[in-house]
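Board work, copied verbatim: Glycosyltransferase 2-like domain-containing protein
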Amino acid sequence: MEDLVSIIIPTYNRANLIEETLDSIIRQTHQNWECIVVDDGSEDHTDKIILKYREKDKRFHFYKRPLNRSKGGNAARNFGFKKSRGAYIKWFDSDDLMDHDLIESQLNDLIKKNKKISVCLFDRYSSDFSNIEIKAKPNCIKLNAYYDFVTTKIKINLPTVLWHRTVIEPFELDESLTKSQEYDFIQKVLKNNYKEVLLLNMSLVRVRNHADSITGNYFLQDTKKVKSSMEVKLRVLNDITSDTPILVKTDLVKLYFKALFKVFKFKKTKLLYYYLFKIYGLKELQIKFMVIKVGILYFIYFFTGKGAVYYNKILSNE
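↓ predict structure ↓
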């Protein structure tokens, strides 16, 4: 019998989009699946749509996020995982589409090569899927999947991954995060399971570009999201050890200060100095020098408006 794959979808006010997503699941060539939709407090008629699908196909299951769980996609994903029964797990978004052979292609690859994590590619489409706006580039592992992912050398998001249940059972998505939560979860799993990763360089997921997509844009005005994104980068930096390759250390430092540039540019003084202080205690001399440079440069920028260009030059020279 074919392995059961659990597809877990968090949703919020997606009544106008989710039917396309569910139809793409029904069309899967691998038919032994269950689809668990967890509603995060929708105020539209999402529930009626899911129940309509449930009446026609008992492989669909519908839950509402318990009131004692945090609001947000992370809590919905974690709750959905607890309700799942599959040996393999696929988290998906309620506004994106699966190619008809997504599950079959990833599952067959894992079974054939005896691995536990399959990563495919995704293309980014216009809101009505009429044209591709960003075509995926092939992934290629150079050091290992963990190092390459945390330094953004390879692109992975949750909808592109098929997980064997055993590799994710020890982990949960951090429900306190409002930004970079997928990056945080994936890096935690890959850190100890990078040898289990298979890259399937086929575009099998269609991501919809629209103003309120779950993946969304980085809004500096939302301080909570800024903090969330910086905290995740700080976690990865804190995992640096003497065994971490020097190129990886350098890239991680650059990524941290690149993210901090947004805070610098918009003169978020308290946030900037808070995250400079947070990394000053790390042992790497490179980091200490960068903290001092940026701290002095910000003082100049704050009063004169000059220094943003030089900030980027510092990054390129590190």
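The chain has a mean pLDDT of 91.
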